Amino acid sequence: MHIPDGFIDLPTSGIFAAASAAGIALSLKGAKKSLDEKSAPLAGLTATFIFAVQMLNFPVAAGTSGHLLGGALAAVLVGPYAATLALSVVLLMQSFLFADGGLSALGLNIFNMAFIGVWVGYGFFLLIRKLLPKTKSSITIAASIAGLLSVPAAATGFVLQYAIGGTATFSVQTVLAAMVGTHVLIGIGEAIITGLAVGAVMASRSDLVYGWRGNSSLLEIRKSI
Amino acid sequence: MLEPSLKIEELAFAYPDGNQALFGVNLVINKGERVALLGPNGAGKTTLVMHLNGIHETTHGKIFVSGQLVDAQDKEGLKKIRSQVGIVFQDPDDQLFMPTVGEDVAFGPYNMGLRGAELEKVVTKALALVGMSEYKDRPPHHLSFGQRRRVAVATVLAMKPEILVLDEPSSNLDPASRRELADILRSLDVTVVMVTHDMPYAYELCERAVILSQGIIVADDKTKNVLTNEKLLKDNRLELPVGFSIN
Amino acid sequence: MVRNINKIEISHTELGHHHGHDVGERLYLHRHSIVHSLPPHVKIVAAFMFLFVVISTSITQWQLFIFYFSLILLTLTVAKIPIKLAATRSLIEIPFVLFAVLMPFFGTGEQFSIGPVDLYRAGLLAGLSIVGKGTIGVLIAIILSTSTTAREILRGLEKLKLPQLMVQIASFMLRYVNVVTDEMERMRVARASRGFEATGIKHWKILATAAAALFIRSYERGERVHLAMLSRGYDGVLPHEEVTKVSVKIWIKALTLPFLALLAHLLMIVWK
Ligand SMILES: Nc1ncnc2c1ncn2[C@@H]1O[C@H](COP(=O)(O)OP(=O)(O)OP(=O)(O)O)[C@@H](O)[C@H]1O
Ligand SMILES: [Mg+2]
Fold it and tell me: pTM of the entire structure?
């Protein structure tokens, strides 16, 4: 889904670049508040994690495999602001270093994956967490559904951009049907993996999960020499 | 009477996940002493070390560095303490976060306000001290583990600390590097706290040894006495290497 | 995203992908050339300007595209980047090429036939445009990343006012990406050495657990790095390089390419 150069026209790319810049500015503000001075190394290692986890191939069938997009996962684990920043940096590096996603399409890609993917995912996560009882498995379920919906949501972002400034000749309806259809399928994979991954983090270090706050207990003093 | 370099009073600490690692540590280290901090895996040594310059906030108990209380709220005081207490981390990859070796060594002195030629001089000297001068422009991840460890030591030496804390400095060093590091440590006029599983190294470098076990200090004596107390060693999962004996 | 993994990868790994291992260093090709020696921010600006000119050109002016491609070839030659390397690395755009190839077969409007197949004119043009512009975009990015180290690119972006926190995040990412992918590789080897091979959806749980372990390790590393920084007096800003001014001459050198492209484009308009 990394859009290349020339796929969406320049004015549209420009509008979304501006939107992305604004969104990043807001996230920078938000991250400062929620992460204080820890933000740089933690968000940096989160970006590294997302980058690495996108390299982890999940085999589907007959030689095809998929990988995680990680928007919802990152949002649940480190919060939406840090997740937006981490994903933006990952996309930035992917386009500059690997030509994965066009340079002029950077704004488009960041908008779809670092904003829509993260915030729609996080929104649904909060909503579903509210509806479910306050248990650890609710977090896993909520994260999973967030993963499921974040992918077609990001794909819808692409369709929107295509409708405004697409240069291809397929009709918007066709593209919408094809993109959302395939991305619902991909979303199912995203849901399973996001759920499993969040579940595994909850099992060993639930305190790291932004979407879950555990409680601390009192310290015990032992007798020394 | 001179203030002790380090004074720890009933220090207890639990990690955010609820795992308590320290259960009331009491320890006094005087100026110029070299103290070995021994103890089995998971005893809390690294956790204790992280408290010594306030990077883990003291939630219970008190720590004084040269008489000054380590207080996470007192940003100015903390800055001073961090320039006095230099910590060499257990994993050099945690310590070397800048793009090149030279920039990494410069990080600490830069934060202390050094610039330009002065900064350059400090960096060159610290790298020369650990024999890593020619690696100045290399990225850390291109170095071997032992080389990274040496650079990690240089990053701390460049800050000219009064108290040098090393978390397992000799692990993964080849014999010559291990001896060279010992020579460097002996040549410095600083207080040294050295966490180690390397008993001969402790014996060679430190006159005093303390054992941390399950989050408390269970022994504090001359290194010789600690290392010859077989029961004490055994109770704390410590062993002298085969063929090594103290007489 | 669904993607096809190539044959070598199928045989024994669930890892491995176009993202190379030693990010930044492996992509970078050390040569001495004008392209290499230009300051990174200047190169980035030139790349974007060139791209803008290309993207705003209509594919019907195919002569211009030939000219653009020659400029790119020229740059590749000057930068001493082997064509083969550029070609292999541009395979990344294949999914979109496939998309574009379908276009002439579906659509509406004017049709024409080549032998037994009927093609749509608009679809063909749009497909060509997507492939042409996409390829140029990919090649430009490749020239940039082959002639500039990742670190330098980041420095260039910083100079072009990428926010400090983003620069720091990216900088940590470049520093630790090898450490983290090494960890991931070690976990894979550990799985493989115990006879595990991921072949289908039934293995997702194990892979997801690995991803979780990777997150925990990365996060804890982030914490420890932060502690290490604090203990050496970090208070939110990383040391800065002294800013060096770039001379007008260098700017002119770097902007020759986009300028030539623009000139050709304008001439074409005037001429039409
Ligand atoms: N970040 C962390 N979060 C939670 N628990 C931790 C963390 N780091 C360490 N612990 C736990 O705290 C205890 C003390 O760990 P510490 O690293 O201080 O041991 P150590 O004495 O340095 O061991 P080693 O000799 O293996 O280095 C251990 O039980 C460990 O599992
Ligand atoms: Mg330790």
Answer: 0.85
